[in-house]
Structure to design on (563 residues):
């Protein structure tokens, strides 16, 4: 069984897909400041000015997805929301003194979105760090296949906030230069903000689209903040994913890597892929050089970006991977459109040891 | 598809209980090391530990957890630190991710299969059962350790269930109610059969 992408949309440093063609620029155009005054590059969304502006754009994105799916008001009311995010609305919390519980509920942001979009009131907020929205996709597939819902909107959402900036600064994981993932020159991640949305259904749409074949996730209990550097756990999760999808590793045409450009992630992920493909690996693509690391949003956002690339254009490649100036850990895809690939593997890793992978198939009409 | 609750437990942590006292309790009662773990995680560990007798192979054990709030003490302290311009510690920051509790619990109890932490606005138990049943739909041979944290004014309760599928050959999750809680969602829900412990 499989479920199909009926629509996708994204709001990121690549622009708002509802308003203009996506722009894949591999340089961060903004900066963020830590509380201690340090400055780092940052991938900001153009034309977004603060929380309310991002929230309004998110509601427009969801509305667009529902229109793409042709859902009636009654169908919308039965449609579930699966939200994947790391920081949710943490930047909007007002600190209080003298009260035991002043933290909002985890589901607060999802409640605002469901209420504003006419979706079913019961939503789930996946919070497994950087795998959050990919896990939301995996479980949306299972839930649709098991007949519990007809349609599910899966959102990845990450907003700029000071806690995230200060937290990643404390971990010394951020680069002061560029995000050059899957090269030997990688110097760390650059944060970004973004929203990605996908509408899923079991019904096959009358157009070329991606379908979800299967996914897997598991917890690497080696370390809270890193996965095994030899890539063994990532490889095991990918193998489970392939098994769930019923696809052989050799049938994969393209791997969209997590690709954070941190030393541990890139070495572990590339080691896993080299072990999985000891002879010839499929080419990789990476979206964080264009969006920054959007944490819990990146699973859905990067899928929405891949789905949003016009079939007349090549899958975007960062300049450093085309120029040949930086030694690459794996070959990047060159000159292929999304209609040239059949099976695409998405791989992600997150704090808390969470690794996840999902396999897609490109369906022609 | 039917699911069977193999075992159930709950742990009640008084709101004022210190981290040190809770760590000692977990160590004495369950012989588990709770160093570096906050009260939210320790309450989950204490609730889940007594289910260990029923576990199968680590690769067939999954963890599905659900809460309405993150670790309140931890996240509120971090936001206060940020507000007061105090530096954020790397370990504290990483521990605030939702699934940090899952990491410590999975490591302590040797759980190696699927691992999810989800948050909800309300109806955490019903949503957790829905998600666990969904996991078992896709992984019929596995067992799920399901945890639900509940925050009350004077205490935190962590409920723990050990669940498995008993009719994996059925290809659809049928619309059968699990009490009023699940019925009130208005969605199709998994059939839940509560059987005596094995």
């Amino acid at each position: 069984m499989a479920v199909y992408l009926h629509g996708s949309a994204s709001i990121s440093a690549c622009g708002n897909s509802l308003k203009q063609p996506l722009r894949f620029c591999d340089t961060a155009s903004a900066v963020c400041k830590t509380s201690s005054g340090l400055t780092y590059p940052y991938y900001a969304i153009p034309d977004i000015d603060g929380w309310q502006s991002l929230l309004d754009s998110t509601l427009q994105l969801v509305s667009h997805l529902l229109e793409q799916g042709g859902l009636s008001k009654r169908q919308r009311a039965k449609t579930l929301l699966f939200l994947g995010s790391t920081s949710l609305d943490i930047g909007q919390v007002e600190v209080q003194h003298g009260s035991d519980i002043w933290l909002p509920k985890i589901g607060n942001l999802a409640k605002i979105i469901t209420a504003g979009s006419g979706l079913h009131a019961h939503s789930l907020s996946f919070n497994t760090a950087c795998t959050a929205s990919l896990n939301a996709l995996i479980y949306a597939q299972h839930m649709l296949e098991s007949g519990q819902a007809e349609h599910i909107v899966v959102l990845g959402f990450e907003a700029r906030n000071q806690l995230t900036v200060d937290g990643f600064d404390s971990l010394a994981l951020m680069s002061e230069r560029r995000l050059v993932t899957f090269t030997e020159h990688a110097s760390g991640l650059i944060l970004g903000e973004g929203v990605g949305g996908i509408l899923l259904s079991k019904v096959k749409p009358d157009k070329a689209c991606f379908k979800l074949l299967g996914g897997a996730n598991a917890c690497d209990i080696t370390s809270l903040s890193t996965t095994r550097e030899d890539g063994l756990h990532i490889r095991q999760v990918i193998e489970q994913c392939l098994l769930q999808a019923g696809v052989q590793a050799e049938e994969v045409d393209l791997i969209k890597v997590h690709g954070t450009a941190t030393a541990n992630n890139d070495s572990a992920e590339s080691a896993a892929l080299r072990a999985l493909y000891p002879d010839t690996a499929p080419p990789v693509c990476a979206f964080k050089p264009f969006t920054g690391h959007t944490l819990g949003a990146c699973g859905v956002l990067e899928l929405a970006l891949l789905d949003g690339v016009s079939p007349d254009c090549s899958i975007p490649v960062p300049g450093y991977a085309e120029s040949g100036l930086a030694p690459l850990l794996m070959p990047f895809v060159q000159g292929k459109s999304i209609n040239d690939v059949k099976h695409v593997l998405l791989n992600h890793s997150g704090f808390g040891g969470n690794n996840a992978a999902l396999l897609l198939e490109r369906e022609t009409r | 598809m039917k699911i069977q609750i193999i075992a159930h437990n709950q742990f009640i942590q008084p709101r004022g209980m210190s981290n040190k006292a809770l760590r000692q309790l977990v160590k004495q009662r369950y012989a588990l090391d709770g160093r570096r773990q906050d009260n939210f995680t320790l309450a989950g560990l204490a609730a889940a530990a007594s289910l260990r007798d029923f576990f199968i192979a680590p690769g067939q054990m999954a963890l599905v957890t659900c809460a309405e709030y993150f670790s309140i003490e931890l996240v509120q302290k971090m936001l206060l630190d940020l507000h007061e311009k105090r530096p954020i510690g790397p370990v504290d920051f990483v521990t605030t991710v939702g699934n940090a509790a899952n990491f410590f619990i999975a490591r302590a109890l040797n759980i190696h299969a699927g691992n999810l932490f989800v948050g909800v606005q309300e109806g955490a138990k019903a949503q957790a059962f829905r998600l666990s049943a969904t996991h078992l739909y896709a992984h019929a041979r596995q067992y799920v350790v399901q945890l639900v944290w509940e925050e009350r004014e004077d205490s935190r309760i962590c409920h723990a269930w050990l669940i498995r599928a008993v009719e994996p050959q059925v290809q659809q999750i049928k619309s059968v109610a699990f009490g009023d809680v699940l019925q009130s969602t208005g969605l199709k829900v998994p059939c839940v059969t509560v059987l005596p412990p094995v």
Remarks:
- The longest strand of chain A covers residues 209-219.
- The mean pLDDT of chain A is 96.
